[in-house]
Backbone:
């Protein structure tokens, strides 16, 4: 099985007492290894992270301020206020046209922490999770930090372009120690969307084998056609082995607020509630008030975010495929990333991304950060002001012309 290109863990030096090797062995995050090259250089255009430059809208910020003023400064409900859980249940029921009860919903301090806590519930030492890649790197690190094995299953690159999941091959990666299939759709970094038919196949397999599906749907609304990407929530029954991760970070421009949610079977709620208690007790109540208003009044804003990203996407789609050495770029149908190859760089993907920071003053993420099979690929986030995206393209053109 192909191994991901790994970067050595940082040199920590000696600790005064024992620290778990599963934790010290976590490699340096490759995106960080690129961004550190800039060392506070303000002239670099940073397209390496998964974040737009759009500030959280005023109506959300003001709600948090008002909640703080009104005294929302105490411990709150660990799985989220009844108001926010109810609003989430209504939001998803409306979006997916199927009743989703509030007892299946838990508010979490971000999508990231939902992933951590779900895996804390699922993995014993030596268990494995099969992770569909290329994918945002943190899920694999969580699995490793918990003493599990992150087992990759790479999407197939189609000769005509685009990505495809080979479900039969994925099934072959599972064994008696497989506790979860981690699937991120819409996908970061490729923009690939898991089709409804394959959701059905994965669901049938998970039921039959008693394996959890952890479906990371944080880009569910970041689609350029339609209202949302196909979701496991459209097909799963309440007691199916399906755990959904979602977040306010992307579609509501709330990355710094650290608020997301999970959907799970009702009886899983108490487990997750315990994990929330042991990790951070509750999401701050003023943040939950803001998240509630984001859901209830934020639909126009979600639409504006998509239009904003579409503009960035169009600039990239017009320019990037025409740059020297750029290959295999397709306009993504979802998420806010361009994922593309630069010919001749596969043996030095991380180094080339670092070189681009120094020479082009543009920060991109190296494909090797996202699992095996993406050597020579790069990801950039186009959820930025049109002039920023255009200038990044100018700079890339200069650097790639000199390559
Ligand atoms: C695929 C994916 N899942 C989860 C997250 C986590 O989002 P957050 O922790 O901000 O909610 C991200 C953030 O980049 C992501 O790209």
Residues:
């Amino acid at each position: 099985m192909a191994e991901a290109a790994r970067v050595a863990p940082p040199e920590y030096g000696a600790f005064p007492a024992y620290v778990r090797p599963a934790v010290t062995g976590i490699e340096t995050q490759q995106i960080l290894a690129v961004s550190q090259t800039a060392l506070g250089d303000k002239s670099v255009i940073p397209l390496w992270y998964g974040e737009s430059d759009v500030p959280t809208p005023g109506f959300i910020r003001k709600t948090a301020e008002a909640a703080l003023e009104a005294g929302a400064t105490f411990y709150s409900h660990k799985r989220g206020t009844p108001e926010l859980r109810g609003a989430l249940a209504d939001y998803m029921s409306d979006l997916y046209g199927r009743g989703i009860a509030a007892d299946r919903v838990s508010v979490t301090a971000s999508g990231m922490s939902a992933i951590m806590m779900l895996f804390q519930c699922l993995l014993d030492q030596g268990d494995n999770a099969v992770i569909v890649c290329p994918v945002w790197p943190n899920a694999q690190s969580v699995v490793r930090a918990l003493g599990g094995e992150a087992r990759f299953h790479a999407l197939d690159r189609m000769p005509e372009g685009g990505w495809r999941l080979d479900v039969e091959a994925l099934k072959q990666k599972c064994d008696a120690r497989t506790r979860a299939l981690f699937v991120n759709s819409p996908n970061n970094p490729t923009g690939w969307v898991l089709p409804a038919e394959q959701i059905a196949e994965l669901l049938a397999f998970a039921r039959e084998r008693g394996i959890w599906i952890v479906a990371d749907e944080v880009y569910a609304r970041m689609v350029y056609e339609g209202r949302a990407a196909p979701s496991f929530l459209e097909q799963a029954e309440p007691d199916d082995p399906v755990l959904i991760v979602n977040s306010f970070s992307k579609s509501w421009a709330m990355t710094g607020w650290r608020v997301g949610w999970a959907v799970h079977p009702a009886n899983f709620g108490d487990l997750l509630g315990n994990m929330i208690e042991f990790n951070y007790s509750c999401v701050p109540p003023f943040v939950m008030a803001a998240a509630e208003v984001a859901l209830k009044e934020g639909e126009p804003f979600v639409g504006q975010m998509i239009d904003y990203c579409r503009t960035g996407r169009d600039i990239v789609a017009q320019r990037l495929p025409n740059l020297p050495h750029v290959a295999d770029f397709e306009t993504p149908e979802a998420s806010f990333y361009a994922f593309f190859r630069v010919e001749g760089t596969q043996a030095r993907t991380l180094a080339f991304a670092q070189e681009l920071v120094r020479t082009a003053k543009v920060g991109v993420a190296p494909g090797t950060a996202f699992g095996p099979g993406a050597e020579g690929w790069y990801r950039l986030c186009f959820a930025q002001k049109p002039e920023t995206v255009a200038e990044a393209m100018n700079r890339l053109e200069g650097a790639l012309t000199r390559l």
The CA atoms of residues 228 and 344 lie 37 Å apart. The chain has two domains: 21-56+301-401, 58-297.
